[in-house]
Specification:
The structure holds 2 protein chains of 2 kinds. By secondary structure, chain A is an alpha+beta fold. Chain A contains 5 helices and 5 strands, in the order ββαβββαααα. In chain A, 34% of the residues lie in helices and 16% in strands. In chain B, α14 links the parallel β20 (473-477) and β21 (505-509). Classes of the chains: A alpha+beta, B alpha+beta. The interface between A and B is large, with 56 and 56 residues. The complex binds FE2/S2 (inorganic) cluster (FES) (2 copies). One FE2/S2 (inorganic) cluster (FES) sits between chains A (99-104, 136-139) and B (191, 242, 483).
């Protein structure tokens, strides 16, 4: 039996009928075509599927769509809604070489956003801890950490 | 000031805004109208004969559109080594026999993924289980079960390299090191699981969007396994989420998607799960390495006898190349005046090992670098000094195999010693008893292979440039960016050549029906040198045409050199007489009565031996802290000095270095497969541990710039070789910290404790 759910995603309201076993990741990617949220493992271990739900970063692959009913969700597509200019975190990732294959990037950026929302002045260990649930196989993380430091600095000035 | 405008600058990746915003489309992001979803049934047994497959229940399930087994296919074997058809040992779907747990047996497509999974459960396969071999030793034992009939001894391949006189060399030695090393299999663990979408069109062509490093190889092998001609197959590379060697062959799901798209007339998608990837996917070769090296008292090497037994798993995959390269790298870095290598690629009933970043080098160099450190210890020499004494220099050769052209290895060793404060710190570590250690490891790597196992009848790389009168150009390249940044590098090379800005270049990449034939793909660090040379060749043709226009316009003497800079074209000695790039294209087009200005460029390495046009070199120092209570090793800092020729994009090179350290660190300390009779037990990232942000040490690095005459603007390999020195450097540091010498990987806390406690037999 399908359940009728209501999701607010990137400020837009959606009414959806979903089977109870479907994950938020599947619904975002397949039903809403928000493919910026990636799927890297399905077991909550890689962080590629990270989205922000009511201000917290969650693994969308482990979150059932019905659990997300009524929740406020932000995906990577919602970070710089105009689609034109980039959010300072995105900007810093581009500028400081924090992106290689890019598959971890949306999840990394969402985790970084939650981190900086909670702690606008993180030191390096804070950043590393904040990213410890997001795997990246390409960059060795150091440029990602640097980009987040730079973004924090920028956001504090703005 | 640099003589270049763009080469050597920190140029942001051209694709990074799309990746930062989630707009970049990977294979699994593609959704076509009416698309079906596929699943693959895999063998639960390591070795078995297939007696019968009953697909009737699965095929009858409403929503299931097709079910196929090997019997439905043309039964054509494939493998990247087309040059030696014998080595092509794999069917897209198993025929008669399965050889590892995970071997692909049948495929299903249905209107959704859940139904496809349900249908898999309804396929009934009857097997006759056969005895199996789960290690190289078992496979090599007399009377061992035969995995492939054409190789009754289970040795799929033997590669040799030999020169000089070993007997004489060892007779001259004052000290002979003779050791066995054992290195393990690890996963590429690229973050994007493999996915593909196939569509068959009314033109009789099948198009495949696939997460691959080698669109052209996939095109060739897909055509042969489907019984089609190459031109009937179009392969398009979407954005790829990493590969590291793991996506460089035709794979069963690509075949199944194309086959089933043709059969059903509908687009078909396959996507692997992480469990598929970890449990059944390709991996780095585990090896046993036997190495005997002779030294004089002063550290000079006199001879080396080297043998590698590669655990190939059930099929050849890229094993034959890894077997050869292992022997090549065993002879690199130092002058081995007398050398013999014997490499055996051995079938076992395990998931096949394939190409992985470093491609035979990390294994060979773990052995040779560890042995150098052991020799230094035995002879009372400094590990860096003994390396400098034997280091290769430009012009050195592996006779009949390779010649070293540019080489800054000695400078790398000197620099890494200086930047790490080697002498003083290493001595301090030796004094202290608090678990601190410092070690060195080195590498050399290829800038693309000159071997042509695919037996391509095209050039090795190609490029097409279309010039427009609005001052822009369109670059079409078959080169394959899988995250390493080659789209950016190739644009930089072209922008520099033509004096344009990055934003003046539009790019179309890796579409076998659109981009020029051909390119062997992304592997062996070949793209900057080979793809870059093709771009330069095409650019030279465009420049010649436009220089002619400028000469005509200003009635220039033919001896004038014509410059291209800042969007202008001008005689170098009279820059005031200039046309803009667009004006020159406009005039050329007018003169040609409307014909557009288009040029193609190509590259084939010639006269470069059997291995590569150019070798990179480097040296790395690791500082570790070992907790003697828990056995936990913390890598505190890495220092690297490397010679990658001219640096085209420092930020990109640095990113490759840091990513390599991450992968090398995982290889050294934490990544491994836990196997039980051919079954991989750790199939999630919870159990298969790749390094996280918390594990990465800080680092310092220096590029020793040499000029590689065969490379574009003097560039050579920068993204792959660096994965090799990390494990031996860390292992040496641990050995200094604990007093125990590790000759096997990974160095887990248990092993460290056993080593300290004198409980290890290895
Ligand atoms: S896909 Fe959700 S954590 Fe990996
Ligand atoms: S950039 Fe490739 S996984 Fe992070």
């Amino acid at each position: 039996m399908k359940h009728l759910i209501h999701l607010k995603v990137n400020g837009d309201d959606y009414e959806l009928a979903v089977a109870p076993h479907r994950t938020l990741n599947e619904v975002l990617r397949e039903d809403l075509a928000l493919t910026g949220t990636k799927f890297g493992c399905g077991t909550g271990d890689c962080g590629a599927c990270t989205v922000i739900m009511n201000g917290r970063n969650v693994s969308s692959c482990l979150t059932l769509a019905v659990e997300a009913n009524g929740q406020d969700i932000m995906t990577i597509e919602g970070l710089a809604p105009s689609g034109q200019e980039l959010h300072p975190i995105q900007e810093a990732f581009v500028t400081y070489g924090a992106i290689q294959c890019g598959f971890c990037t949306p999840g990394m950026i969402m985790s970084a956003k939650v981190l900086l929302d909670k702690n606008p002045n993180p030191d390096e260990p804070d950043i590393r801890a904040g990213l410890s649930g997001n795997l990246c196989r390409c960059t060795g993380y150091n440029k990602i950490v640097e980009a987040i430091e730079k973004a924090a600095h920028q956001m504090n000035q703005d | 000031m640099s003589k270049y405008s763009i080469i050597g600058t920190n140029t942001p990746r051209v694709d990074s805004p799309a990746k930062a915003t989630g707009r970049a489309l990977y294979a699994d992001d593609i959704k076509l109208p009416g698309m079906l979803h596929g699943q693959i049934l895999r063998s639960p047994l390591a070795h078995a004969r297939i007696l019968n497959i009953d697909i009737s229940k699965a095929a009858a399930l409403p929503g299931v559109k097709a079910v196929i087994t090997g019997e439905d296919t043309p039964k054509v074997k494939f493998g990247n080594w087309r040059l030696f058809p014998d080595t092509q040992d794999e069917y897209p779907l198993a025929v008669d026999k399965v050889r590892f747990i995970g071997d692909e047996v049948a495929a299903v497509v249905a209107i959704d993924n859940d139904l496809a999974c349900e249908a898999l459960d309804l396929i009934k396969v009857e097997y006759e289980e056969l005895p199996a071999n789960f290690s190289v030793d078992e496979s090599m034992a007399p009377g061992a079960p035969v995995i492939h009939d054409y190789r009754p001894d289970n040795i799929s391949l033997n590669r040799k390299i030999e020169y000089g006189d070993l007997v004489k060399g060892f007779a001259e030695a004052d000290f002979i090191a003779e050791n066995t090393f054992e290195v393990h299999a690890v996963s590429h663990a690229y973050m994007e699981p493999c996915a593909c979408v196939a569509q068959s069109d009314d033109d009789g062509r099948v198009t495949l969007w696939t997460s691959t490093q080698v669109p052209y190889i996939v095109q060739c092998l897909l055509a042969s396994t489907l019984g089609l001609r190459e031109n009937d197959v179009r392969v398009i590379k979407p954005v790829v989420g990493g590969g590291f060697g793991g996506k460089m062959e035709l794979r069963a799901w690509e075949f199944c998607a194309a086959f089933l798209a043709r059969r059903t007339g509908k687009p078909v998608k396959f996507r692997l799960s992480r469990t598929d990837e970890l449990a059944y996917g390709r991996r780095r070769h585990g090896m046993k390495l036997y190495s005997k090296v002779g030294f004089k008292k002063d550290g000079t090497i006199t001879a080396k006898d080297f043998r590698a037994d590669l655990d190939g798993g059930a099929y050849n995959s890229m094993g034959p190349t890894a077997t050869f390269l292992c022997g090549n790298f065993g002879a690199m870095l130092y002058r081995y005046p007398n050398y013999r290598y014997n490499g055996y690629h051995i079938y076992t009933n395990k998931p096949p090992a394939g190409a992985m970043r470093g491609f035979g080098a990390p294994q060979a160099l773990f052995a040779s670098e560890t042995q150098m450190n052991m020799a230094a210890e035995a002879l009372g020499l400094d590990p860096i000094e003994i390396r400098i004494k034997n280091a290769m220099v430009p012009g050195d050769q592996i006779p009949d195999v390779a010649t070293v052209s540019s080489c800054g290895f000695i400078e790398c060793l000197q620099e890494v010693a200086k930047m790490s404060g080697w002498k003083a710190k290493r001595a301090a570590c030796a004094e202290s008893r608090d678990g601190k250690g410092m070690g060195v490891g080195c590498y050399s790597f290829i800038s693309g292979g000159v071997f042509n196992w695919l037996y391509t009848q095209y050039t090795f790389s190609a490029a097409e440039i279309r010039a427009f009168e609005d001052g822009t150009v369109h670059l079409l390249t078959p080169a394959t960016d899988i995250g390493q940044g080659s789209d950016t590098t190739l644009k930089q090379i072209l922008a520099e050549e033509l004096g344009l800005r990055m934003e003046d270049i539009r790019l179309t990449v890796a579409d076998t029906s659109v981009t020029p034939q051909s390119d062997l793909g992304t592997w062996g660090s070949r793209v900057t040198l080979m793809g870059g040379n093709a771009v330069r060749d095409a650019a030279a043709k465009i420049k010649k045409a436009l220089a002619g226009v400028v000469s005509l316009k200003f009635d220039l003497n033919v001896i004038h050199d014509i410059g291209f800079k800042d969007g202008k074209i001008f005689p170098v000695t009279r820059p005031d007489r200039c046309l803009t790039f667009g004006q020159a294209v406009h005039m050329h087009q007018k003169f040609k009565r409307g014909e557009p200005l288009v040029a193609r460029g190509y590259y084939v390495p010639r006269g470069k031996g059997l291995v590569t046009p150019a070798f990179s070199f480097g040296a790395q120092v690791a500082e570790v802290q070992v907790d003697r209570e828990t056995g936990i090793v913390k890598v505190e800092k890495m220092y690297t000095a490397h010679d990658c020729g001219t640096v085209i994009n420092p930020m990109s090179v640095d990113g490759q270095l840091e990513g390599s350290i991450e992968m090398g660190l995982g290889y050294a300390l934490c990544e491994r497969f836990v196997m039980d009779k051919g079954r991989t037990l750790n199939t999630t990232f919870l159990d298969y541990k790749v390094p996280t942000a918390l594990d990465m040490p800080p680092g310092e690095s220096v590029c020793i710039e040499t000029f590689e005459s065969e490379g574009p603007f003097g560039a050579k390999e920068a993204g792959e070789g660096l994965v090799s020195p990390t494990a031996p450097a860390i292992a040496e540091a641990i050995s200094q910290a604990t007093g125990y010498r590790f000759k096997d990987l990974p160095i887990t806390p248990e092993k460290v404790l056993e080593g300290i406690g004198g409980l290890r037999k290895v």
